[in-house]
Design a protein that fits this description.
The structure is a homodimer. The first copy, chain A, is of the alpha+beta class. Chain A folds into two domains: 63 residues, Arc Repressor Mutant, subunit A (Orthogonal Bundle); 169 residues, 2-Layer Sandwich (Beta-Lactamase). Chain A is 47% helix and 18% strand. The first copy, chain A, has nine helices and eight strands. In chain A, the strands form two sheets. In chain A, strands 5-4-3-8-7-6 form a six-stranded antiparallel beta sheet, with helices on both faces. In chain A, strands 1-2 form a two-stranded antiparallel sheet. In chain A, a hairpin with a 4-residue loop joins strand 3 and strand 4. In chain A, helix 5 packs antiparallel against helix 9. The longest helix of chain A has 21 residues. Chain A is globular. Chains A and B meet through helix 1, helix 3 and helix 4 of A and helix 1, helix 3 and helix 4 of B. Chain B binds a DNA duplex through helix 3.
DNA sequence: GCAAGAATCCCCTATATTGAGATTCTTGAA
DNA sequence: TTCAAGAATCTCAATATAGGGGATTCTTGC
């Protein structure tokens, strides 16, 4: 399983850095990756020069400034964020909730921008936090609008999880359920990601077939009766559609 | 100057991505870097698998989700940010201004967190934006507290720029000026980075010798007479010192 | 100024990397 | 659905180059 080309070897140093561990000494890296001392140091030197890592005296290596810069470049130019932020602002002012833009990166859901108007940070998903793939309104808003070719393998892989949350036990059943969401244009989920929190999400499209993101609201179940939820739903849908149209995508969520 | 090891070759793909250009087609990369087609695609594949790049249909490659995640990891765990943010909050509420935490990464100044209380975004420096090295209160607050060994080469390199802004024409003169800042603990600059904007910055230390960052305020000259500036200065100094002490550094800025 | 530890250098060998061109896979259009 | 243009990958030989043991130099902290 060890990568056999040096491209992957060098990049696997970066993947050592996780939420659990953000500081690595060369010794620990040698241990973890099995590289020899000179080799590791060669790699580290390159990563350091690229600014992706920095060495801190007496405490090993951490992520470096280039990471911050690259993220800045993305934020600054991402049309999804630029067009979406006014909507985040608007909806989060209208209700006590969190509003999120979550990008779909092929097999990952990642929050790229968010804003909240509530005190608690239970429902808070800051930029950069990955989301569970098989749960919640957000992922369903993506799945429901995926073209068949992409959807089917997706379902296969997560069948267990999807049926566990009651979406259906067979690929058949699941697609049927998703078709309903597709018809409504919005996905609503009650407490799937966080108990007591309702998620409402609609897909965002650019010129392509598959959705690229969702625009969504999470709100405490205490603050949202059915009436409110349905109001929010249509606003969310409208916002998502407007963002889509700005991105050159279809205006409405119909297929 | 072309890198001769594949570590650097792979990483130089990442450095193609700049503020000017955030989408690269493979063709353009081949052109820019001089790699052959299969080689380039091999590299791209690795970068894609690592999540650092994503390929967009019909518009080439862009930065990928891992970049966002890595930045998140940094934000989440950076003690400078964690301890600094309350102060950003507090000072930006007290005056109509921007409050910044700027990290010193060896030879780069990079804003890592900021907050502003004014409407205009003239003085706004969001996270990730690099800052000019030889200008402004911020860089001076770093330079003034650098140990000699690090300071002298720094001055050599930027002599022209430093003397242009009147810091002194010789290394001698400049160090003399910096010594004054060091005595006061705060650097103040009038309109050096942005005309009409006053910058006020104090260094932040961890356990090491050299400052690791500055805590600073930028405020429109219209809104700040000498009296106000001196008030802000002492508050900035106090905040910076408090952050330093939280980071295990010296409490006061004296040497 | 010195010593312990960290980072880099040297240099040869085996091996992984490279690139030209052919091949297969996608994707959009008819 | 079929087709064609373009994008991505594969094959394979030649060879550059990454890797590692051990020595060396550079940093730090005392």
């Amino acid at each position: 399983m060890a990568p056999s080309n040096s491209a992957d070897r060098i990049l696997s140093i970066l993947s050592l850095f996780t939420e659990e561990r953000l500081e690595w000494t060369p010794e620990a890296m040698m241990e973890a990756l099995g590289y020899s001392r000179p080799t590791l140091y060669r790699y580290l030197k390159s990563l350091k020069e690229a600014g992706l890592l920095v060495s801190m005296p007496n405490s090993g290596f951490t992520l470096g400034p280039r990471v911050v810069e690259l993220d800045f470049l993305m934020r600054k130019s991402d049309p999804l964020i630029l067009h979406g932020e006014p909507h985040l602002e608007r909806l989060s002012s209208a209700w006590p909730c969190s509003a999120l833009l979550v990008r779909w990166y092929g097999n990952k859901l990642l929050c790229v921008s968010s804003r909240r108007s509530t005190r608690d940070n239970i429902t808070s998903y800051p930029r950069g936090r990955p989301m569970p793939l098989a749960r919640g309104a957000i992922s369903r808003a993506i799945l429901a609008f995926l073209p068949r070719r992409q959807l089917l393998p997706m379902i296969e892989e997560n069948l267990a999880e999807l049926s566990r949350i009651g979406l259906g036990d067979t690929a058949e059943a699941i697609t049927a359920n998703l078709r309903q969401i597709r018809r409504k244009g919005v996905a609503v989920a009650h407490g799937e990601v966080t108990p007591g929190v309702v998620g409402i999400a609609a897909p965002v499209f650019d010129a392509g077939q598959a959705p690229i993101a969702t625009f969504s609201i999470t709100i405490s179940a205490d603050l949202a009766n059915d009436q409110t939820i349905s109001e929010i739903s249509s606003t969310v849908l409208a916002s998502a559609n407007e963002i889509s149209s700005k991105l050159g995508g279809r205006h409405d969520a119909e297929t």
